[in-house]
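Hey, resending since the last one bounced:
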Amino acid sequence: METKTNLLDRELSWLDFNGRVLEEAYEKENPLMERIRFLAITASNLDEFMMVRVAGVMDMAESKRAKVSPAGMTAEELLPILDKKIRAFMDHQYSCLNRSILPQLEKNGIRFVGTEDLTPEQKVHVDAYFDKVLFPVLTPMAVDRSRPFPMLANKSLNIVVHLREKQEETETDKKKKAKKAKEAFAVVQVPSILPRFLELPGTKGKEANGERNFVLLEDTIISHMALLFELHEIVSCSLFRLTRDSDLSIDEESDDFLEEIKASIKKRKTGRPVRLEVENDCDAESLAFLEEMLPIEKEKVISLAGPLDLTLFSKFASIPGCSSMCYEPIVPVSEPADYVGYEDIFAAIRAHDCMIHHPYESFGVVVDFVRAAAEDPDVLAIKQTLYRVSGNSPIVAALMRAAENGKQVTVLVELKARFDEENNIHWAQKLEKAGCHVVYGLSGLKTHCKILLVVRREEDGIRRYVHMGTGNYNDSTAKIYTDIGVMTCKEPYGSDASSLFNVLTGYSRPPRYNRFVTAPNDMRPFFREMIEGEIACAAQGLPSGITAKVNSLVDPEIIGLLYKASQAGVPVKLIVRGICCLIPGVKGLSENITVHSIVGQLLEHSRIFRFECGGKPRIWMGSADWMQRNLDHRVELVFPIEAELMPRAEEILDIMWNDNVNTRVMQPDGEYLLVDRRGTKKLINSHRTFSDMAVSEAEKAVKRVEEISGTTEFKVHQAESNE
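The structure tokens again:
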């Protein structure tokens, strides 16, 4: 455990989290294709970590700034520790692939074969694919005095080709000592637009047994490389992949913020190299050539024993015909219990506050809410924040339809959502063309809150309907991220929502909210007050306790307050999926704190905060993690759960805390261990439990409605498994 203080370093803690994901790839109880998917996730995670976090540490180290992190380390001290840990992690990735996953695939009749092992029939197939598909796409790029080294795209897969000029031998040459042939180098990019793997026709005897063979795209290219360089001999071909610094530097005072974002995105593609991955059999001459041309220091080069860019296995895990090697899908309930039996969604919300637990209950409910508002002649206005949306967003389509129908539609699109900037620019421009009012948030702050306001004219006056959530308005990620949304038309929430949007779109002063707690102004003092309140309760002998579920726990002040609470005897239960800089279970410091991390079929994303409050518990949910950026540098929102929804919120927290299938418990030395199941009578997988509960509650709601109405026309609907 690397720390000089009572805090762990956030970068090292993140690597530990990615290690927990990698453990799922090793876990033999998981279905094989899911293990492959976990491996791909670790590679994707690490790419982003290198591009942003490691690049930032490198910048700090090179600037010679002596800034010390909360864990007590300078960037110069941290960098070699990071490097060692990253290399060890990547070794574990490839060990998992080569020693565990690939052998298991072979046992299941699935093999990756080299081009030298192809049957005659398979060779004909591969040759035809190269001639008809690959050859027209490939662009061999020679490097010499007249042709400089090409600008390589970030994370692109490339082949460095070591060449020797062919010589026609004369009789004179034969008699003399052979001249040394000129050597050269070229680069061939592996086309990212084509699938990384090609399925081969099987042999007649094995097809009946279901054997499937695949060849990698780069192997196909390398085996035909001589066709691209007919005037040269191929000395060697080596795969390599470059990762660049991709953290954007944005001038928020620019006269044209949209153009500033676009320019920054372009710079990302040409950022300085932070990592060079090469195959471990890359010849010395080719490696020296790459180091000189890129240029990149030797200490940033990582040699790997297998195919580069393990994210390729994300798509491979979804190949047809392998459903038996995947998780049983979690199929969302299309009409959750809170909405059963009402004539429309507005009637349901008027009747009671509604809670939607994704993905167990379909995100389609939220989409339908916006669609209904877009078509309802009594709806006057819709206001919404968008942080990350899908590539073909039904939410955006509904907002555009609302504007076309004459509604006043205001959308705050956060252009600074990392790696989603281009997608958000695209949607912002589409929304503007449709007649929506589009704003880009507040200078210096990311708008990360998740809120939707619908203003409707009704018989008794204007009524405001509000949706507040813990996750993005993204129908794609809502299938795999666990999030919670609440819909209400209670006036205090409607008033707060209007005030919040006035702050975001105009020059209004942040108000005193009725229910909302927002960052950057109020959230830090709110959490400080709530934690200190639990400390006071403990001192008075009143019931006390803190339960928090977040993605990351980094903020030094919050951690210090949690330590103080522990020392006062307050039981603290934390469910932290990712980074956790707090150290639990240390005598005299944190012995009353327990930290769980849930990693499983779904990605835990909801943020929930429960305080015992002297025996009258209160729960808040929202968009904010306990990190400095969320509390001080973003527009965030947490909202209280009202009494009618409290039992369900308590039940959700209780089930997650008692999960003994997906949970690892953090130890005082920073290690995470799976829950000890010895003597356990019942396995609790929170993801499967919530899925079963959603179906069960919907069935109960249908029966209640049938009993009241005297009909049997109601049914429980579940979305398609590929929703």
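Confidence is low (pLDDT under 50) at residues 204-208.

Sorry for the duplicate.
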